[in-house]
Amino acid sequence: MTATDELLARSEARTNPGPAEDSSPVPALHVAIVTCMDTRISVPELFGLNRGEAHILRNAGGVVTDDTIRSLALSQRKLQTREVVIVQHTSCGLNTVTEDSFKDELETDTGLRPTWAVEAFGDVHDSVRRSLQRVRRSDFLPNTDLVRGFVLDVHSGKLTEVG
Ligand SMILES: [Zn+2]
C-alpha cells in the first residue's frame, strides 16, 4: 500500500466530508500565512485556525519566492486578504544545505543545473527578513504594510517575531 492509498482510505473514512457548498473562498480573517512544508508545523494548531479563515502557502523553507508572490497576488487581489504572516523555523532543512552544494548535487546526478534559487540560508532570521522585504517591495501586491515575520522554535513551539 502506498502513502497515497493510505490517504485515500482515510479520506473515504471521514465522517465530515468537507465544507458546505455555499461557503466562501474568501478567508474570514483576510490573512495569508506563508510557512515551511516541515511536517512538525501544523498551521491550524499553531494559530488555532479553523477552515475558511486563512490562506496557507507552504514551500521548502517558507520562503517568499516568485511563486509565493503569484499566490499572494491572487490572494490579495481576488480573495480580499490584507495581511501576510511569514513563519520560518529552527532546524529547517534549508539550513543544512548550501545554494551551490545542492545545485552541484542536482547537476552531477542529472546533467542539468536548476535556474531556480534553492533559497538555502545560514541564519533563519536573515531569511525571514529577506522574505519580508520581498513582500514589502512587490509591485504586484496592493497590501504590503501589514506583513510580519516570525521564527518558530520547533522544539518549544514558541514564536519569535523578526523585526
Ligand atoms: Zn523548514
Write a structural description.
The longest helix has 14 residues, at 66-79. It contains five helices and five strands. With 163 residues, the chain is α/β, with parallel strands linked by helices. The model has no long low-confidence stretch (mean pLDDT 95). Strand 4 (147-152) and strand 5 (159-162) form a beta hairpin. Strands 2-1-3-4-5 form a five-stranded mixed β-sheet, covered by helices on one side. The protein has one domain (25-162): Carbonic anhydrase (Beta-carbonic Anhydrase, Chain A, 3-Layer(aba) Sandwich), CATH 3.40.1050.10. Zinc ion (ZN) binds at residues 36, 38, 61, 89, 92-94. Residues 36, 38, 61, 89, 92-94 line the site of zinc ion. It catalyses: hydrogencarbonate + H(+) = CO2 + H2O.
Name a few traits of the molecule.
single chain; 163 residues; alpha/beta; Beta-carbonic Anhydrase, Chain A; 5 helices; globular; binds zinc ion; EC 4.2.1.1; zinc; Carbonic_anhydrase; zinc ion binding; carbonate dehydratase activity
